[in-house]
Design a protein that fits this description.
The protein is an alpha+beta fold. The chain contains seven helices and nine strands. Strands 1, 2, 3, 4, 5, 6, 7, 8 and 9 form a nine-stranded mixed β-sheet that branches. The longest helix is centred in the last third of the chain and has 14 residues, at about 150-160. GO terms for molecular function: acetoin dehydrogenase (NAD+) activity; acyltransferase activity, transferring groups other than amino-acyl groups.
Length: about 210
């Protein structure tokens, strides 16, 4: 698989400041940056920083970030699916998961999530992969956003669409447990038909759902 990491960067204006979107970046580079104190969706900023460093140094791990001065204010991670999830069962080298995307609350008006995803797809290597993300409503910041489940789902779907990810059906029990949950997928232009067949076989383990 094409795990070669070609670095990209782009500037973005926000509230009179120039932000830098860059990646994929190394664990060493993440170590040199501060992590914004508002990045607490998954764990404390210090613990999240350690997690990002470990992902960045995996052969397939890709982390793209938004930086304000010397502080990471948003990030997106791409990594192989968790071994405990059904998506890892086919052992597909060409299947990557968009594991996490987070933007500090102070920067949410800048559409940094959409910008990060659009930026991530500049990398030609993504054309070799099927990229998935699994969206579960219980992970969403409904309280902080003031949005209903369906409003938040619409925002998430629009953001993922910016990166070329589209809704796909699945019989995965966790996703099927609530109608707002969903699987979103981007299929790279160089992904083979046999890879798609393997992927479809894990999307639907109950053949009657086809």
């Amino acid at each position: 698989m094409n795990h070669k990491k070609k670095y990209y960067s782009k500037e973005l204006e926000f509230n009179g400041r120039t932000l830098l979107i860059e990646g994929p970046i190394s664990g060493k580079k993440i170590h040199e940056y501060e992590l914004h104190e508002g990045l607490v969706a998954f764990r404390s900023p210090s613990e999240q920083k350690k997690a990002l460093i470990s992902i960045a140094d995996l052969p397939e791990g890709r982390i793209n970030v938004v930086v304000d001065d010397n502080t990471i204010v948003g990030y997106v991670t791409f990594v192989y699916p968790d071994p405990l999830e059904r998506w890892s069962e086919a052992e597909m080298e060409e299947l990557l998961e968009l594991g996490a995307i987070e933007v500090a609350k102070d920067y949410r008006g800048a559409k940094l999530g959409s910008n990060l995803l659009t930026f991530s797809m500049l990398d030609d290597a993504v054309e070799d992969f099927i990229i998935i993300t699994t969206e579960y409503y219980w992970h969403w910041d409904l309280k902080g956003s003031g949005l209903s489940i369906w409003e938040y789902r619409k925002v998430m779907e629009k953001m993922m669409n910016a990166g070329g990810l589209e809704w796909m059906a699945t019989d995965d029990p966790e996703i099927s447990s609530h109608p707002a949950n969903c699987l979103m997928v981007r299929v790279g232009s160089r992904v083979s038909q046999s890879s798609m067949q393997k992927f479809d076989a894990i999307r639907f383990t109950n053949r009657f759902m086809y």
